[in-house]
Specification:
By secondary structure, this protein is of the alpha+beta class. Helices cover 48% and strands 14% of the residues.
């Protein structure tokens, strides 16, 4: 094999490590068997480098390829979905590394590495991942530079990484021009027609016992909110989602039986304006504070005040809203009354007896509601995320036997009791609370804030929010954003709401987490959220709002064409090589002799020049020979060091012709 075509061992060592780091973010989504197989291939490659007698022959490569192929089709029989394609790409990258011997093979591995880095953005576009990919691009480019060197070295040169970093930094101005001027499309950049709903969480349009508790255990962000004024207190942070009307005694679902009508209600408080950045989810509804008043243009307000929108599934969406926190919804329609009084067939006699007792002690519907809340507050009810299993009648068993559950148990059982009492009611799901991030002055609403509550219709106030969970666990409502849930997997153990540890380490971890989230929020808003509308606003500020897509593309090409020569000129100025101090001192020595009529010829070496100077000026023999000997040692010999350089500099400085 041609030695010029060989790859230095140091490059292969580092290439193996960088390949593992390039694929590493995919480990969390790949099947464990695929991850172990990929790491095994890299380990085998490393062993063949460490032990020279272990050579990757054709038989070994063939065996590893067959095993990898069988494994891929065992885990992903039809190679359907993104995970299957990423698994295939990862193993292909590892196998190509196994047979990497020549520079051509190295270039293929590096190009596959660049392509693999791009695939990370199909799953995540957080700013930490962007920084990680940026570092990996520099590492791959450094390997490419190191492999292209003609001189052999035993180690990896750090200046290759510095040169690679400088190349990446030099490309940033062109990247910014392309980012701001490239004609934007209406849809998201990474929505490439694949199913991105895998692994995404969010509220469903129905609830059964246990469905919301799974969300409450997740710390994933549901959405972020920027308020135009101070954020409302926690007890008013009810983010309205799906409204559930129909029940079979176990499962609650939405209804399509409501007729569209002109929605009007009386506002009793000042408006609250805010912007919501909704994380990707498979749902088509938006969240708003009770009650929404001014909606974004793409949204539709249903008769039960739920908001739906088109073309928002599985992508991040930002919208503006205005809500009223105090209101009167007005009279009840006949259809709403009919739906709000529907009861399942499994209402038990003791449920009816309990409601009859409340009715006998009440003169109004509001008094009956207060009796029900007092019942939850005074009886031995507990808020727990691990309630015991319910039978065919979960409401009855919860009210009179277990008395252990979380928000959906309280909301559904309370709503059933209100319907038995003849009070129209419904279940509302959504989120409650949120954590205020002081670093960005916005609210973070997580999946752990998922909640369910009830609405009852009262003559004097219309649809009125009633949260029976607050009667049992007021900490969940009043201070949820300041409290950490201490998880306990023991069946039926109540949740303990305890204040977060005030230790320095805990505070630092919280500040770091909020700082990362604030950076991500800005990244989403100004970079990932840089839409066609925002581009038009920017161009209008620059006085270029009239540019069409074609003219914008031409402006982008023109700006790039102007920018490249400017960058090349600046790079040329910055790349001018400064002479070595030893050479500079020797040139000063020659210049002083030139002033006395002894000019050094371009072809003349230091020794020949010194002999000619001595012949013409015997009086300068000692300093000329001393300077020449020092110069030859520093320039051409192995002797070097600060002392010798300093002595040479002093000799030249003291020389006078």
């Amino acid at each position: 094999m041609n030695s010029a075509n060989q790859i230095k061992p140091a490059v292969l060592y580092h290439l193996t490590l960088v390949t593992a780091l390039v694929v590493a973010p995919h480990f969390q989504r790949l099947d464990l068997r695929i991850t172990l197989a990929f790491l095994a291939v890299l380990f085998l490659r490393w062993m063949t480098l460490y032990f020279a007698q272990w050579k990757t022959g054709r038989l070994l490569l063939f065996a590893v390829t067959i095993i990898s192929t069988v494994l891929i089709f065992t885990v992903y029989p039809l190679l359907m979905g993104l995970e299957a394609k990423i698994a295939l790409l990862s193993l292909m990258l590892g196998l190509k590394l196994m047979e990497c011997r020549r520079r051509r093979d190295l270039m293929v591995v590096l190009l596959l590495g660049y392509f693999t880095l791009i695939t990370h953005f199909l799953f995540d576009q957080e700013i930490l991942l962007v920084g990680y990919v940026f570092i990996m691009v520099i590492a791959l480019t450094g390997l490419m530079i190191e492999a292209s060197r003609s001189t052999h070295t035993t180690g990896f040169r750090l200046n290759s990484l510095r040169y690679a970093a400088s190349l990446v930094v030099q490309s940033l101005p062109i990247m910014l021009v392309l980012f701001f001027l490239f004609p934007r499309i209406s849809g998201p950049l990474w929505n490439l027609g694949v199913d991105n709903s895998t692994g995404q969480t969010g509220l469903s349009d129905n609830i059964t016992p246990g469905s919301i508790s799974n969300l409450i255990r997740s710390r994933a962000v549901a959405f972020r909110v920027d308020f135009d004024q101070d954020a409302p207190p926690p007890r008013q942070r009810y983010w309205r989602g799906p409204v559930l009307w129909h029940t079979d005694g176990n499962r609650w679902t939405r209804t399509t039986a409501l007729q569209a009508k002109q929605i009007t209600y009386q506002s009793l408080s000042p408006p609250v304006s805010y912007q919501v950045t909704l994380e990707p989810s498979p749902n088509n509804w938006l969240y708003a504070l009770d009650l929404p008043e001014i909606l974004p243009p793409e949204a539709t307000l249903l008769p039960d005040f739920q908001i739906t929108a088109k073309d928002i599934r599985n992508r991040r969406h930002r919208y503006s809203m205005t809500s009223r926190l105090e209101y009167h919804t007005g009279p009840l329609s006949r259809r709403e009354r009919q739906l709000g009084l529907q009861v399942p067939d499994n209402i038990t006699p003791r449920m009816r007896d309990l409601v009859s007792q409340w009715r006998s002690e009440s003169t109004t519907d509001r008094e009956l509601v207060n009796h029900a809340l007092r019942f939850f507050r005074t009886e031995l009810f507990y808020y727990t995320l691990t309630p015991p299993l319910m039978g065919e009648n979960p409401s009855d068993q919860f009210l009179f036997e277990s008395r252990r559950g979380f928000c959906e148990h309280y909301a559904t059982s309370f709503t059933s009791l209100m319907r038995v009492a003849g009070i129209p009611s419904r279940v509302v799901t959504g989120y409650q609370g949120g954590e205020l991030n002081p670093l960005g002055n916005y609210l973070i609403v997580r999946q752990s804030d998922a909640h369910a509550w009830s609405e009852v219709w009262l003559e004097e106030s219309g649809w009125t929010r009633v949260d029976p969970t607050a009667a049992v666990a007021p900490e969940r409502i009043e201070q949820s954003f300041d409290f950490d849930l201490e998880e306990n997997n023991i069946l039926g153990i109540p949740v303990i709401f305890s204040t977060a540890d005030s230790s320095l380490l805990k505070q630092f971890a919280k500040q770091f987490r909020l700082g990362i989230d604030a950076a991500n929020a800005s990244w989403h808003r100004w970079v990932l959220g840089y839409s066609k509308e925002q581009q038009q606003k920017l161009l209008q500020h620059l006085g270029l709002g009239a540019l069409s897509a074609l003219k914008l593309a031409l402006a982008m090409i023109l700006a790039t064409a102007v920018l490249i020569p400017i960058l090349l000129f600046l790079l040329r100025l910055g790349s001018q090589i400064k002479p070595d101090p030893v050479v500079r001192d020797y040139q000063r020595f020659c210049k002083r002799l030139d002033h006395k009529g002894i000019n050094r010829f371009p072809y003349e070496g230091p020794l020949d020049f010194a002999r000619r100077v001595v012949r013409k000026r015997p009086d300068l023999k000692q300093p000329v020979n001393a300077i020449t000997q020092h110069y030859i040692k520093l320039r051409y010999g192995k002797a070097d060091g600060p002392q010798l350089r300093k002595a040479f500099h002093q000799l030249v400085r003291q020389f006078r012709a």
